[in-house]
Design goal:
About 50% of the residues are buried. It is globular, with a radius of gyration of 23 Å. Strand 9 and strand 10 form a beta hairpin. Strands 1, 2, 3, 6, 16 and 17 form a six-stranded mixed beta sheet that branches. The chain has a five-stranded mixed beta sheet with strand order 11-8-12-7-13, sandwiched between helices. A three-stranded mixed beta sheet has the order 9-10-18, covered by helices on one side. The chain has about 425 residues and is an alpha/beta fold. It is built from 18 helices and 18 strands. Helix 4 packs parallel to helix 5 and helix 17 packs antiparallel against helix 18.
């Protein structure tokens, strides 16, 4: 069980903080929060619970409130504009934490708090908010990944295990397989499958082996699948429009959707067609061997702004830990359907079995078929990686302006902000 006393009585002069300002603000302190608009009711309810659990916070004239609706992916830009005018507490996507840490906008956590979070949420969740050995965030979500959805009346369980099986099932039924390879979030799934790796080095650049012999063979194999399935596989556009997939799932659709590698959109798809079923990502065959595609897995954290008084920092960290603890994550799951990181909650819910895509993502993670996103990429990742998908999708034979698969991947790992992994 989570030690509720430990969460509630840590000394307010040092809670979670690695370096604080020395001034104090007195009893009129008001903490502010940046939170996504879709989470506003939940956050306000948690604020009320925090006040109830900490009566002196209110009795001595303090307050906490939402300052503005800001999505988790906007935090680095908002703090980058004028971080001292920003909220003291913010909900942040893991790929925003690096720029916030490098810019000095958010506080690092102390060793005791970091150890407590590792015990509570697991090493990977904490590492997703760790930059150069320092943790910067309190994990609360680990569900930003993608799985396979199929119309099970078209693609049965056996066919769903492989891309080759899906293509055949869709072709037999005159249906489509939506595979958004032009979107850089999806593009590397088949490179990760054959041992492709990325990591951000101390130089701030992406180090990658995406041009390894295994990845070159993987690119050639996936390209051959695309070339042989232009009648079935839909890859057009920068991204696959979920509405187009849903339309294909409609009982009256003239063009049926057989399968789609999509984001966590199970409820909408199942509502459109009761036959929709979620699966782990399929395999594809490289040199006679099946390799399972791997999804990025993004985490989200609560972060605390830098450069404020000791009192502000202490209460901000106390609230950050409160709104990411077991009870808060359980409420998130029950009310919003979000997949948390709390290890006790994962065990009690059997990896969130009531929400199919969450359970499957956690099963994929356990099998080694997810790749932590935020700490492994920078803003330099997206366009060069997307280019690989564009080359594949725009050329039904050959490699466009490149002479070979190796040239395509050599260009990727030597792009600006990238380094070939040694």
């Amino acid at each position: 069980m989570i030690n509720k006393k430990l969460l509630g009585v840590v000394a307010l002069t040092a809670l979670g903080v690695a370096g604080l300002a020395s001034c104090s603000t007195g009893p009129d302190l008001t903490l502010t929060v940046w939170a996504p608009s879709s989470d506003a009711d939940y956050v306000n309810a948690q604020i009320a619970k925090f006040k109830e659990a900490n009566p002196t916070f209110v009795e001595e004239g303090r307050d906490i409130k939402i300052l503005a609706a800001v999505s988790e992916g906007e935090i680095q830009d908002k703090y980058g504009t004028d971080f001292k005018a920003g909220a003291e507490i913010a909900f942040a996507a893991d790929d925003n934490i690096r720029n916030c840490a490098d810019g000095g906008y958010i506080q690092a956590l102390d060793a005791d708090t970091t150890a407590r979070l590792v015990a509570r949420d697991g090493q990977e969740a904490v590492d997703a908010g760790t930059i150069n050995g320092k943790a910067y965030g309190y994990p609360y979500r680990g569900d930003n990944g993608y799985v396979l959805y199929v119309d099970s009346s078209i693609v049965n369980d056996e066919a769903a295990k492989s891309i080759e099986g899906i293509v055949k099932a869709c072709r037999d039924a005159g249906a489509k397989f939506y595979f958004p390879l032009r979107n850089a979030w999806y593009t590397p799934c088949f490179l990760f499958a054959v041992g492709g790796e990325i990591e951000v080095g101390t130089d701030g650049k992406i180090h990658s082996n995406f041009n390894s012999p295994e990845c070159i063979a993987g690119l050639e194999a996936m390209n051959a699948i695309l070339d042989g399935a232009t009648d079935v596989m839909v890859t057009s556009g920068d991204d696959i429009d979920p509405n187009a997939v849903l339309e294909g799932l409609s009982p009256n659709a003239t063009t049926k959707t057989g399968a789609a590698i999509m984001w966590n959109d199970y409820e909408r798809q199942h509502a459109a067609n009761e036959n929709v079923k979620a699966h782990a990502l399929p395999t594809y065959t490289v040199s006679g061997e099946a390799h399972a595609l791997k999804s990025f897995l993004g985490y989200k954290h609560v972060v605390v702004r830098a450069e404020m008084s000791e009192e502000e920092s202490a209460w901000a960290h106390k609230f950050a830990e409160f709104i990411t603890d077991y009870d808060a994550q359980k409420t998130r799951y029950e009310d919003l359907g979000h997949g948390g990181t709390n290890l006790q909650l994962l065990e009690e819910t059997n990896d969130f079995e009531d929400v199919p895509h969450l359970q499957i993502l956690n099963e994929m993670k356990a099998a080694g078929n997810t790749v932590p996103q935020g700490v492994n990429i920078t803003s330099a990742f997206w366009d060069p990686c997307k280019n690989v998908g564009v080359v594949m999708c725009d050329n039904t034979s050959g490699w466009g302006t490149y002479e070979s698969a190796q040239q395509v991947l050599d260009a990727l790992v030597t792009s600006e902000g990238w380094v070939e992994m040694e």
